[in-house]
Amino acid sequence: MQPQAAPETGRLSFSDLPGWADDDLDATLAALRLGDAAVPSRDARAWFEATFRPGPELAGHFTGYYEPELQASRTRSEAYPCPIHTLPDGGITAPRATIAPLLAGYELAWLRDPVDLFFLQVQGSGRLRLTDGSTMRVGYAGKNGQPYVSIGKLLVERGVFDADMTAEGLKTWLRADPARGDALMNENPSYVMFRSVELSTETGPMGTLCPVTALRSLAVDPDHTPLGTLVWIEVAGHARLCIAQDTGSAIKGAGRADLFFGTGAEAGSRAGALNQSGRFVPLVRR
């Protein structure tokens, strides 16, 4: 007989987590070891169940993120006029609308348009397919300290889109009228800068704690969910053990999480489709 939740405490047990018995805990263990090499490398299920127990359940809200693949150039050209910037020594605090001239000389690579840059900044990392045939991985280096404003929420509030707006639909709207698109993007004063990162092609992008793993890594609010926390999630057909390994400026509050979906357009479509409530159960040490 499987153990039940202890009635005298109301605590959850692993049998209260639908899908726990079928989850690939070896995959979670491998992702966990990317941030903590001291974690044992075998007997994942036995180790998790002996070391942790389900903690208090939170009302979760989940979105998704991914690593985009973008066409780019090492040099500016008519086809690639939009710079990705590195972080200056000492930082910078100017808002998005006025920051570009102040970052002259800090160009890392060049993209096709401001929409590609904006969404790269939202995701925080990317793979650049360069015109010389090489690939550059870029990761988060810092930002300008300005608050993040969701332009998607602005358009929903203004009645331009319904709440089921997709990222691709938003990109199309921004590009249909570049001046209108630039004006809207400038309503988000936050501006992210990047650095080149050396990672294996098989490795996910660098998160706040370590490289992230598709469908196992979460971006969280570390003020509520410490990095390294194991979290059981149930949302949109996903029932799996994940790890808090990343953060994001839009990820705020208890139970708030961004699930990493992987690299490329398909991962982006899946990530963009996730925006709903679900079950968020942190594990705590016994």
Explain what this protein looks like in three dimensions.
- Residues 69-195 form the Lytic transglycosylase MltA domain.
- It holds the Pfam family MltA.
- The protein folds into two domains: 14-65 and 204-285, RlpA-like domain (Barwin-like endoglucanases, Beta Barrel), CATH 2.40.40; 67-197, Ribosomal Protein L25, Chain P (Beta Barrel).
- Helices cover 23% and strands 30% of the residues.
- The protein is built from eight helices and 13 strands.
- The protein has a six-stranded mixed beta barrel with strand order 2-12-9-11-10-13.
- β6 (125-130) and β7 form a beta hairpin.
- α6 crosses α7.
- 34% of the residues are buried.
Question: What is the topological layout?
Answer:
Elements: H1 25-33, H2 44-51, E1 52-54, E2 58-67, E3 69-73, E4 82-85, H3 96-99, E5 107-111, H4 114-123, E6 125-130, E7 135-143, H5 151-157, H6 167-176, H7 178-185, E8 192-197, E9 217-220, E10 230-235, E11 238-247, E12 256-263, H8 265-273, E13 275-285
Parallel strand pairs: 2-12, 3-6, 9-11
Antiparallel strand pairs: 1-13, 2-13, 3-5, 4-5, 6-7, 7-8, 9-12, 10-11, 10-13
Helix pairs in contact: 6-7
Short structural description:
This protein has 286 residues and is of the alpha+beta class. Helices cover 23% and strands 30% of the residues.
Task: Supply the CATH superfamily name of the largest domain.
Answer: RlpA-like domain
Q: What is the count of helical runs?
A: 8
Q: Note the gap between the termini.
A: 21 Å
H and E string: HHEEEEHEHEEHHHEEEEEHE
CATH architecture of the largest domain: Beta Barrel
Q: What is the overall shape?
A: globular
Low-confidence residue ranges: 1-9
| Global mean pLDDT | 94
- Rg is 20 Å
Strands in their spatial order, largest beta sheet: 2-12-9-11-10-13
The tally of domains stands at 2
CATH top-level class of the largest domain: Mainly Beta
Would you report the number of β strands?
A: 13
Stated plainly, the CATH topology of the largest domain is called Barwin-like endoglucanases
Subunit organisation of the chains: single chain
